[in-house]
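Predict the holo structure. Ligand: zinc ion.
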Amino acid sequence: MRRFRSILLSLTFLSLFLFSACSHAGDDLIVKIDQQEITVTREMYREIETGVNVDDEKDYDLPLEYLFYQNGVKVVDSVKVIQDDIATTYVWREIAGSTYWRNVSQIEIDGQLYSIDQLNVQSGGFDFAVDHSITDVAALTAEALGISFGDKNSGFALSAVPVEHVVWFFLDGFGYEQFQFAVQEGILPNLSVAGDFYPSYSIYPPRTSTVTAALLSGLDSTQNGVWVSGIRSLNVPSIIDAVKDSAREVLVIEGSSTPFNYPNAEVVLSGDRDGDGSTDDNVFSHAREAFQGGIPSLTMIHFHGIDDVGHTYGPYSEEWRVKVKEIDQMMGQLLQELPANTLAVIFPDHGMHTVVGDSELGNHGNLILDDMSTYIILRTE
Ligand SMILES: [Zn+2]
Ligand SMILES: [Zn+2]
């Protein structure tokens, strides 16, 4: 009897073991990124899901792109979805905004749910090697001012440092692809020759607040705790704090609101005082005043207009071109009036892609080249 019971017990354990092993294996998802294979487990899914769904929203949609970015992909060209030996290939830019991760091996594409066996990801990006990222700007600023901020090296070789001032020109939503288009159209006479041009990558998700967190912390979104829109504060050190700690001042000239908290900086909100629908002219005049009155060690000037117009009318639209020309004129003037001994750093937070059949004709936030490709322009005065 005792022996029978122990056999029964072993059988129970064995079946439990087999059952859990089977169900576990069934939950896993094989993801092949280029030629590298990873097994995505329930634990990995949970970790990403809880990290992104910070507010514990019931109806939260988790973009599948988080899985790709977590595994080092900056741009996705296409994905091949394999379900019951049937493979379907999608161009990522066509489904990026409507593809969600429902569970470990369940994904939703355009409202349709799939239980998949394997996902093959073809990564993309610039046609040439690009080492720079928005996360280099903080280290670059510290190097230029001769102060310490973390261990990271910007990768830029600066001559004539330290400088007295660093000025950031933050061109919202005017990414690499949009910049190149404007150069070809001949509507960028000033910015196209503003300084040394370095192609660069944004971070995921390429949205203003998350990129600002990466800009200020010098850390990727996977490292700085701001991995989703809606978080407004850093819980890691910021370059603004580092500048302040070295007994210097920081000035931020913003539009009508701040996309992120800048504790320790003097913030000038420009607003749309003349009611012309844009804050850029007011940001411009505040920047000129600051240049004339004497700028502190670090100044950030944030032009929002290209992004705003791009959302409403679409990037490359006629309205967008008019706005690009206007910003280029303002930038031309500001660069001429830069105080001596200044490093100017010109960069966008992200790019933008065209949207069809929506209330907005432009948007950003996906792992596609339009949104993720950026640049950093350096000019020393
Ligand atoms: Zn933005
Ligand atoms: Zn935007």
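Confidence is low (pLDDT under 50) at residues 11-25. The longest strand covers residues 76-83.
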